[in-house]
Amino acid sequence: MKILVTPTSLCRDPEGPGIQRLRAVFDEIVLNPHGRPLTAEELVPLVGDVDAIVAGLDEYTAEVFAAAPRLRALARYGVGVDRVDLDAAAGHGVSVARTPGANSLAVAELAVGLVFAAARGIPFLDASVRSGGWPRQEGRELTGGVFGLIGFGAIGRLVAERARGLGMTPVAYDPMLPDAVFEAAGVERLDLDTLCERSDVVSLHVPLLPETSHILDARRLALLPEGAIVVNTARGGLLDEAAARSLLDEGHLHGVAIDVYEAEPPSSSPLVGHDRVVSTPHAGGHTAGAVRRMTDQSIDAVIEMITGGTPEGLVTPAP
After folding, report:
1. How far lies 244's CA from each of 29, 163, 230, 240, 282, in Å?
2. Active-site residue, from 59, 161, 197, 264
């Protein structure tokens, strides 16, 4: 059997324990040749004779699945499956799994770190001092503010706990969850517009779907209180980057902190390079603990699927 492995964290260590576990099951392992997420066009010539894939943030379109007649199992190294055409996978008899919870803590901690960085302009101040400057830039305090969470799954709930530790009041929007989830967490449930109107910080924690594309658009961003901070560690495309840039330039937003972009790498993003934007390179899940958990869970899943089992993170069972 043959497997394609694309996550850069796995491919940079071909002698590591994760790849070695795969060698015990698969006769041939093909590693990502580009050192970055692959486009559909780049995947097509690689998947023709593979039986399984451990997948990073690549584009798994219908064309990719059509080009892979032997493919039976795809395990996402991470939680998001918005770049996998699940209908096409099922139509071609491919089981798809993900690694739920593996990087939740890492992403939640980065989200909170980005709030601090944006509130005080830490990257700008650091760069200024490094270049010989000694600037005075007015930051903002967080204590006593409202921390709005768009999405209240595992990551959103972890962020809410940490928001309380900052002396902030968490509120949340998530139409997919029952009231009992909010009640158990002691977090007020709000509709989306009301959350925007009340939140000094808004943090995104929803998947990218047609109905969530630009969920923070120009209208909703304008609802935020003056001096608000916007954080996106979920998926590029949830935030209207052009609208956020305009409201930054107008002084309505205090700052934006962004780990994910509509196009990655974000060379054309209107946000990157702005003095009051904190930019990180889709690094939310990149801690030693998260990498270890994603490695173990994705490899467990692909081996279980290829041998006829049902992994915990199964999203699309083959028909």
Report:
1. 43, 23, 9, 6, 19
2. 264
Is residue 282 annotated as part of the catalytic site, yes or no?
yes
Q: Which residues contact 155 (CB under 8 A, 6 or more apart)?
A: 104, 107, 108, 111, 205, 233, 234
Q: How do residues 105-154 score in pLDDT, each as one tens digit?
A: 999 999 999 999 999 999 999 999 999 999 999 999 999 999 999 999 99
User: Which pair of tokens denotes residue 21?
Assistant: 């576990």
Q: Per residue in 162-198, pLDDT tens?
A: 999 999 999 999 999 999 999 999 999 999 999 999 9
| Residue of 282, 286, 293, 304 with catalytic role | 282
How far is it, in rounded angstroms, from Cα 99 to Cα 289? 13
Indicate the residue type of 280. T
- Whether 312 is catalytic is no
SS3 helix, strand, coil % of the chain, rounded to 5?
35, 20, 45
Burial class of residue 19 in the structure, from the number of CB atoms within 10 Å of its CB (0-12 exposed, 13-18 middle, 19+ buried):
buried
* Set 235, 245, 254, 276: catalytic member: 235
262 is catalytic: no
Instruction: Provide the residue type at 51 as one letter.
Output: D
Assess contact for 43 and 68: CB atoms under 8 A.
no
What predicted TM-score, i.e. pTM, was given to this entire model?
0.90
Rounded to whole angstroms, the Cα distance separating 35 from 55 reads: 13
